[in-house]
Each structure stands twice: as C-alpha cells, then as structure tokens.
Amino acid sequence: MENAIVFIIVALIAAAIGAAISVYMLLNRQKLQGMSRIVQAENQAKTIVDQAEDRARNVLEEGEDKSRKIVDESDKVVARRRRELDAEEERLLHRREDLDKRLEKVEQRDANSNKRQSKLDKQQNEVEKLETDRLAELQRIAQMTIEEARTELLRATEEDARNDMARMIRQVEADAREEADSRARDVIALAVQRLASEHVSEISVSVVALPSDEMKGRIIGRNGRNIRAFEIATGVDVIVDDTPEAITISSFDPVRREVAKRAMAKLVVDGRIHPARIEKLVEDSAEEVQLAIREEGERAAYETGLHGLHPEVLKLVGQLKFRTSYGQNQHAHSVETAHIAGMIAGELGANVEIAKMGGLLHDIGKAIDHEVEGTHAVIGAEFAKRHGVNAKVVNCIASHHHEVEQECVEAYIVEAADAISGARPGARRESLETYIRRVRTLEEIATSFEGVEQSYALQAGREVRIIVRPEAVDDLAAMNLARDIARKIEESMQYPGQIKVHVIRETRAVEYAK
C-alpha cells in the first residue's frame, strides 16, 4: 500500500516536472518568436523612415522648383503691369493736354458768342423798331387798327373753318349714309325677295252685282219694306241708284258690310226676297262671316308660325280681312309686316318671334277703332295687354306710330316693316284731295323756315326740293336746315314710307359786257 502511494506520488511529481519543462519550452519558443517579430518591425520601421525621408526630400525639391517658377512668373506679371501703367499714364498726359487745348477753344468761343449776342441784341432792337414803323405805315395805308385787322382775319378764318367743317360733315354723313343705305338695302332686299305676296285693293263700300235691273225693284219691295228690313237686320245702308245691274252696300263696320254683302248675294241668287227670308239669310251669313274670321285669324297665325295667341286676339286679326287702309287690305298687310319684321330681326340678331308677333298684331286696333275711342295703336296695345300678350309685343303695337316711347329693338323693326309694306309701290292709294293736302303741307313746312326762297314737292310727295338764299344760309346751315325740316315733317305729318328733303344752295355771279 505504501509502495503504491509512493509510486503515485513519484508519478505525480514526474508529471509535474514534465509539465513544467513543457511550459518552459513553450515560453522560450514564444519569446524567440516575439524577438523575431520585434526585429522584423524594427526593420520595417527603418524602411518606412527611409522611404519617408526620400519622399520628403523629393517634395522639398519639387516645392523649391515651383516656388522659383511662381516667383519668376510674378516678376514677369509685375513687369508687364508696370509697363501698362506707364503707357496709361502717358495717354492720360496726352488727354490732359488735349482737354486744356479744348478748354481754351471753348473759352474763346464763349467770348465770340458774347460778342455775337451783343450784335444780335442790337439787330433785334433795330428789327423791332422797323416792325413798329411797318405796322404804323400799314395802319396808315389800310386805315385799320391791329384789332380791326385781327377781327377781320378771325372772321375770314372762321368762315373758312365753317366751310371746311361743312365739307367734312357732308363727307362723314355721306359715308355713313352710304354704308347705312347699303346695309339697309341688303336687309330690305333680302326680306322683299323672300316674301312675295299678293294684295287686293278694296274700298270702303261693297258692290253686289245683279242679274238685271228688275231685281232692284224686288230688293226694294212694296213700299220699301224689303230694303228697310234688310237695313234693320244688317245695320248697313243699301244704295240703289242708276248704276246698271248693281247696288251698293255702305257701312262704317267692315264686318257688317261683309255680312250684308253675302246675305244680299244669297237673296239675289235665291230670288225669294221678303222680310222673313232676309232675317234667315242674314243670320246664316253672320255665322259664315264669324267662321271666316276665326279661320283667317288662325291662318295668319299658322302662316307666320306664331302659337299660343288668345282666341280673342286671333279674332281681331281675322276681322282685319274685311278692313282696308288707303286701299290696302289690313289682314294681308299684317301678315306681310310680320314676315318682313321676322326676316329683318333674323338678319340683325333680334328676337324673331317678338318681331313677328308685333308685326302681325300692330294694326289689330283697326278692327275695333270704330267702336272704341282712341287711336288704333293705343287701342290695339290695350286689347293685347288685357289678353296676356308679351310686354315687348305690346310696346311694338303701341309705338309703331311714335305715340309712346319705343323700348326695344323689335319695336323699331316693326315700325320699319310696317313702313316697307305700306310704302311698296301700288300697296296703297289715297284720294286726290288727301294727296293735294299732303303736298301743300310739305311745301308750307319747307317755306316756313328762315332763308328759304322756294320749295317744290316732287315725286308724288316723296321728295321736297328747297332752294335757299346763299347770302342767308351757308353750307353748314344748309345741312342743319335739311335736318330741321325733316324733323318737323316727321312730327307734324303722317305718310307712308319716307320723304327726301333736298336743300339746294348755289351762288351765281352775273356780269354784263358793255
């Protein structure tokens, strides 16, 4: 047991000694390796230091070379700049010398100018003295003072200016009138070309044809009972005169006249003429006429493309079928006016429907103007307003004869369309007495103005030619005179279409050879 323990202890000691030897050897090896690494590091450091010293030496040599180059270049720049400054200083010296010479010349010129100014002042005084002497001599010769001469010159200048202004105004007005006439002709020509309507001239009485003069006695009846019954039933006057195979029916109411005309025609054809038969045929004719009135009103609305009109308004339009003015049928005139107004409104960009309706209804007052007091324009406007017609259309109706102010462009269009339809050649006729009165009124209006020597109405009253005294009316006053006369004609007369006012001013020089 003890031997074993000793053996173990010896083994442990041997193991410890072996381990110590191994550690020692390991430490020696590491020490040797560390010394080797130190030697290598010292060699590398020495190599790096040598390389750094070489590089520093090279950089220093390069820096010295660059410094020498920079110094050389700086010396060259300084030398060049010094030469430039020397040259600039030399130029400045030359300029200063030139300025000194110019200053001497300017001072010399000022001195010469002062001398010349003195001479000019002296000459100016002499000229003023001569001018004063000349004006005094002119006044003595002309026997006029300066103020009188100035007044005369201003008068002559004013007269020349007025003449020039008159010529310019005439030219401007002529150009404007030419352009307006051209535009108006285009619009009116287009409207007239697109509208081709027929007109039947009628008069205020109706004539019924008879198969023979024997029928007149049957119409009159025993003791005139038939004709009295007919007049009572129809409210018209029956005129039986010497006109062969015809009788005349007269009434202020065109509808009554039409009823009577139809009833009389039926009686003549039937041959049975007595009071009972007369009353029956008059009733039948009245119903036919009322039906015709409605049909004509609806036909007018259909032809013009207008819808939604009140039946009473259409009834008045239909009644215009039996109404004439200056021989022109008012129903056809209203339809034509509506078409023309619509075309003009379309060309000018206005409201076509309002213009058409205003043209169709502008004369509806003529259907009842014999029943209601007032002008047909005012009567028609009030009637249309009561039956819900557009306010602008009402204004077109009321203002087409300038009885009220025109409030919309369609009112002017309706007035123009009405004038175009009525002024068309052959559209209207007037009695000789009315024509003579209108022509005489034209001449009286023209001669009522100061400066008018003579006046003549020409072309059936469509033109008035006025001759003025040239010493009393100059060119500008002649233009104003024409405008004033035209305005007075518009205010005081009623006429279809337009009237041309032509003022003539001429100066005649007369001399005799002896």
Give a quick precis of the structure.
By secondary structure, the protein is mainly alpha-helical. The protein is built from 14 helices and 8 strands. Strands 1-3-2 form a 3-stranded antiparallel sheet, with helices on one face. It has a 3-stranded mixed sheet with strand order 6-7-8, covered by helices on one side. It has a two-stranded antiparallel sheet with strand order 4-5.
Please tell me about this protein's structure.
The structure is a single chain. The strands form 3 sheets. This protein has a 3-stranded antiparallel sheet with strand order 1-3-2, covered by helices on one side. Among the domains are: about 220 residues, Hypothetical protein af1432 (Orthogonal Bundle); about 70 residues, 2-Layer Sandwich (GMP Synthetase, Chain A, domain 3), CATH 3.30.300. Helix content is about 70%, strand content about 5%. The chain has 14 helices and 8 strands. Helix 2 crosses helix 8, helix 5 packs across helix 6 and helix 8 crosses helix 12. The chain is mainly alpha-helical. About 0% of the residues have low confidence.
